[in-house]
Amino acid sequence: MNSIEVALAMLLAVVGSGYLVRMLPFSLPLPLVQIGLGAVIAGVFKHGVALDPEIFFLLFLPPLLFLDGWRIPKDGLLRDRGAIVALALGLVVFTVVGVGFLIHWLIPAMPLAVAFALAAIVSPTDPVAVSSITARVPIPKRLMHILEGESLLNDATGLVCFRFAVAAAVTGGFSLLSASLTFLWVALAGLGVGVLFTVGVSFAQRWLSRHFGQEAGSPILISLLIPFGAYLLAEQVAASGILAAVAAGITMSYVELSGRLLATTRVQRAAVWNTVQFALNGIMFVLLGEQLPASLQGAMASVAQSGHRNPWWLLVYALAINIGLALLRLAWVWISLRINVLKAYHRGAPVSRPHWRLLLATSLAGVRGAITLAGVMTLPLLLPDGTPFPARELAIFLATAVILLSLLAASIGLPPLLKGLELPPEPAALREENLARRTAATAAIAAVEKAQHELLEKAPGSDIDIYTSAGTRVIALYQHWLDEDSSNEEEARQLRKADVAERELRLAALQGQREAIFELARRRRISDEVSRRLVREIDLQEARYR
C-alpha cells in the first residue's frame, strides 16, 4: 500500500503544480515548480522516494521517448540530420573531454575517471526538459526540431561514455577500440531493434484484426506497450533501449500512414497519450526534487575531500560546470556554423547567417533533465576492494544542480533573448498545408460526385432533387479551397477573412448546442446516454476548429 500511496501523492503533486504555477504572481516554469514540490515532500514531510535507476529508466523513459519520436517532424529530422548528428555525437564527446578536465581541475580530490563520468552524464540534453522549455518560448521551428532531434539521439553517446568512465574508475583501465565498437553496437542495434519490433507488432496486429477482429481499445493498448517491448528487447541484447524506444516512435509515425485505424480510435488514443505524457513528465520532475535533500546532505559531507570546508563551494562548482557546458556548446555551434558557411560559399550556394542571438539561444537551450539524474544514480557504491566509490554523493549533487541551473537559465534567459527577434519566414509549412487542403478537397469532391451518382441510380424519381441538393451543399464545403487557389491575392485575402469569421460562428453555434443539451439532461428530458453521445459528436466537431 505504501507504494500506491506514494504514487498517488506524486500524481496529486503534479496536478497541484499545474494550479500553483497559475496562482503565483510571477512567471515560473512548471518543471521548476514540480521540482520544488518534490523537494518539499522529501525535506519537510519526510516522504521521499529512493530512486531505483533501472525501474526509473523502464517506467518513464520508453513511453516519453517513444512519443517524442512519434511526433517529431520527420522532414526536419532528415533535412537537418548533419547538424543533429554533429550535436548528438561530436558535441557530447567534445563536452566530456572539456568538462571532465574542468571538473578535475576544480575538485582535485575527485579522480579524473570520476570527473569524466560526471561530465559524460551531464553532456546529453534531455528531450523531456527541452520540450518543457521550448513550449514556453518563441523558438524558431527549425531550431526547435534540431534541439529535439539532438536530445533524442545524444543519450546513447553520453551513456556509453559514462559507462566506460565508470569502468575506468573501477578497474583503472580504458580501451578506445572497445569503447568505439561498443558504441556502434549499442547505437545501431538499438535503432534496428526499435524499427523491427514496431514493424513486426504492427503487421501482427493488422493480420489478427483482419482475420479475427479486435476490441476497440486494443490499438491504444498496443501503442502503449510497444515502447516497453522495444526497450526491454534492446536491453536483452546489450543495445540502447533508449534509442530503441526513439526508433520505435519514429517507425510508428510511418506505420500510421496506412490510415487503417478508425477516426474515433485515433482521437481516443491521442487523449490517452496526452494524459500519459502529462503525468509522466510531472512525476519525473517531482522525483527529481525528492532526491535533492538527500543528495545535498551527502554532498556537504563529501565536499571536505576537495579541501573546502565551506558548503557554498558546492554552488561555485555547480555554476562553473554549467558555464563550462554552455561555453563549450556555444563554441561547438559557432565552429559548426562557420564550417557550414564555408561549404556553402565554395558550392556557390546562398549563405544565410543566423542572428547572434540565435547562437546564444542554441547554447542556452541545452537543458539537462531526468536522464542525467537517473544515470548518475547508477554510480556504484563500492570499488572492487570494498572501499567507497570516490566522491559519489558529490557527483550526484553536482548532476542534480546542473539540471536545476540549466532549467532555470533556459527559462529565464531564452524569452528575453528571443523577444523581438526578427526570424526568417518559414513559408514551407503554409505551402504544404495549402497543398494538402487543395488535394484533399479535390479528392473529397470527386468522392462526393461518385457517391451522388450511385445514390441517384438507386433513388426513386421523387428523391432525385433531394440527393442533388445534398450533394451540392457538401461539395460547397470543399469548393472554397479550390476557389482560393484560383483567385487573385485580394480575393484570397477576403476568403481567408471569411474562413476566420465562419470558424468563430461555428464555434459559437456548437457551444450553444452543447449548453442546450446539458440543460435538457439536467431537466431529465433526455437520458444521460443520449446527452453523452450528442455532446461527444459536438466535441469532435469543435476539435476541427481549435
From TrEMBL:
It is found in: Cell inner membrane; Cell membrane. The chain crosses the membrane at residues 6-24, 31-49, 55-72, 84-107, 183-204, 216-234, 240-259, 271-292, 312-337, 358-382, 394-414. It is a multi-pass membrane protein. One of its GO terms (molecular function) is potassium:proton antiporter activity. Residues 13-419 form the Cation/H+ exchanger transmembrane domain. Pfam families: Na_H_Exchanger. One of its GO terms (cellular component) is plasma membrane. Keywords: Antiport, Cell inner membrane, Cell membrane, Ion transport, Membrane, Sodium, Sodium transport, Transmembrane, Transmembrane helix, Transport. InterPro entries: Cation/H_exchanger_CPA1, Cation/H_exchanger_CPA1_bac, Cation/H_exchanger_TM. The keyword Kinase does not apply. One of its GO terms (biological process) is sodium ion import across plasma membrane. The keyword Cell inner membrane applies. It comes from the Bacteria. Belongs to the monovalent cation:proton antiporter 1 (CPA1) transporter (TC 2.A.36) family. Na(+)/H(+) antiporter that extrudes sodium in exchange for external protons. This is Na+/H+ antiporter.
